[in-house]
Amino acid sequence: MAHPSKARLNTLLAFFLLGAGAVSIMHPVPESTVVCALIALAVLNHRRLNRPARIIGSIVTVLFFLVWITGWLEASDAMSRVTFLGAFLIALGMLSRAASRAPDIRSAATVVASRPRGTRYLFVTFGTHIFAIFLNFGAASLMATLLAQSRETLARQNAIEDLTLAMLRGFAAMPMWSPLALSTIITLSILPEVDYFQILPFGIAAGLIYVTAGYLLSKSAPAQTDLARALPPLHEKKVLARVVLRVALLVTVAFGLNQLAGLSMPESVLVAVLGFSLSWWALQTWAGSAPGLPEELAVTAETGVNEIVIVSGAGFLGAIIAKAIASFDGALSAPPDIVIPALIALVPVGMVIGGLWAINPIVSASILLGVLHPLVPEAALIWLALAAIIGWGITAASSPFTANVLITSRVMGLEAGPLVRSGNIKLTCLALLATGLFCAIAAFISLQR
What we know:
The chain is mainly α and about 450 residues long. It has one domain. It has helices at about 5-25, 30-45, 50-70, 80-100, 105-115, 115-135, 135-150, 150-155, 160-175, 180-190, 195-215, 225-230, 235-260, 265-285, 295-305, 305-325, 340-355, 360-370, 380-395, 405-410, 415-449. Helix 2 (about 30-45) packs across helix 4 and helix 7 packs parallel to helix 20 (about 405-410). The chain starts with a helix and ends with a helix. About 75% of the residues lie in helices and about 0% in strands. Keywords: Membrane, Transmembrane, Transmembrane helix.
């Protein structure tokens, strides 16, 4: 348990960052106070910081003071992005904690994991996909833990690798469309010209195609299973339905705020997630299953400090890079239109290659989008956004260093590197080829209009 004074400081810092992010939707927030709060949070929880967080945090801190001293910071939207992302990560952490305490979430996961052999792959894939919207990386841990309880049976059926890949692929499809995914939030914050609903149909289609292709490429042939035995009984269907309805409600609220309140999609998602998290926490507190709000904020900030530092830092880097390129004011010649589709097609490839070198897609996407945003004509920005969002999902299941791959493979008793190289390389290559061709052709057509 954390020292009481440390817990109180974490509570205050989390409350400030959360409040600053919410207020920044309507009014600018002093940048120096937000930076001081983030630095204090990182220093206070420095023992929890992993290597990527330490590196990115150090680079961003030095860069911030350089651009602040020169007065260049005011001309960019870097700090507004950092403020928003810090608040969003805390709100998302609270949502994940509330979901992890919900009995019906675990019950639904148990239903998914207990399906018979012939339908288990698909149930695990789509179950992980739905749970990831609420739990993020916690979905991988939850599903893997439940499946690992019957590991001996799965080993006799030669199903361990297939079901592990099913979890990875189900998780990877989530960043391709979900408005709550970091892929969507970061991409749209860097490319504000792109409307979420422009890319939503393509993202859903990409996710469906990805998991379908993964199913067709799975090693074990589906066993013949009686349909009545494969489908869960009525009371278990109700458990699954409650989880799906919660996801649908959260997404609907975000969509409604976007359409009715005039908020951007990232802002709508922040408000929806924050409201949903606090409401869920309040109900759990009333039922006696959740701690008080100060403890909830303290634990969320402490356990999520790596993500807060990396995501906020990557957002800052992306904004500064974009501003640096845009500041050349014509001195830097824009690439010819014929080259733009190729650059867009290479974005997912760059993200996957970066993932193989342990570069988080948060960082690679922020840098690539920051570089290309000023160079790509507005007509083709939708395809740049789509390439980054789909590339993010592909990277999530193809890099042995992403959190979901590391967690899932460890719990299932497999090595992460060989798993994604031998088990998922074909799907990764096909997905990169299909995504690159589609986005390149679409960008080329858009530039001809």
